[in-house]
Amino acid sequence: MTRQFLEMRATTFTQSGQRLAGLLTLGLSTSLVWAEPSTNNPSTALEILPPTADLRPALAAWKLTPRQQGARDTCSVFTMVGALEFAVAKCEGHGERLSVEFLNWSANQHRRPGDGGFFSDMWRGFSDYGICSEPQMPYEDRFDLARKPDATALAEAKGRLNLGLQHHWIKEWNVNTGLTSGEFLGVKRRLTEGWPVCGGFRWPSNPVWNAGVLQICPSNAVFDGHSVLLVGYRDDASQAGGGVFLFRNSNNGGADGWMPYAYAQAYMNDALWIDGPARTATPDARPTPSQAGHYSNSLPR
Predict the structure, then answer these.
(1) Domain 53-298: CATH superfamily, name plus number
(2) Given this model, what pLDDT does residue 19 score?
(3) Is 85 exposed, middle or buried (CB count within 10 Å of its CB: 0-12, 13-18, 19+)?
């Protein structure tokens, strides 16, 4: 290591210690997170994050309730639409249901037609066509290759491109790796900043749940895969990896669920978030100190 890098790293630790002392003085619980340091950006080596984040209050305020994919393989589309709905709500100040069917159609313009696909397919479709509201092109129980949006739906969808939404990769798709410590930190950071994270995972062939928490299984018991929208997290030393992520799931009856950090670190194939020039405040994803101890009450039943 160069002397300059060591000096910068020492400064980073000093600043982090000062921030930690200030937060503790205010009575706020914190979580120290170590990320793999980079010679290009030593300031990422140590970061202090709150012990929990939860975007469900914002989703509820905007009436963006859970949705179900049914028998179709559209989990990745529902996940991407969920992130788009959240970003659009931040820009426009109100929630609106967007069309899963339209985004699936637009993605099909860039690949062999079918249901689901990669987040990159969805974003290419959105970049070209935008997205219309759900009433303009409602979700159907079955995939229909012949179904296309009408002129009204196309015009409405194109208008949402003016919002200037952007996507950002935390981890591009790789089925052979999970999250590095830096990518793991990036997911948590985005959630504390008030943005949900799209995640594609290797998923258990036979999921097992314990009090709403997806249980870890060996690599020979997972398949590729399933997509969910991460909408929060909670540090908890009793869970594998030291905590759990909260996710919105278009499968499993539409019930929100939790997964241990260790599961995401092992099996998260890709991760991205969508943002834009927010024009409205999001309810704070970080709880007050009085809210911090209600983990068991927040578990889905």
Answers:
(1) Cysteine proteinases (3.90.70.10)
(2) 37
(3) buried
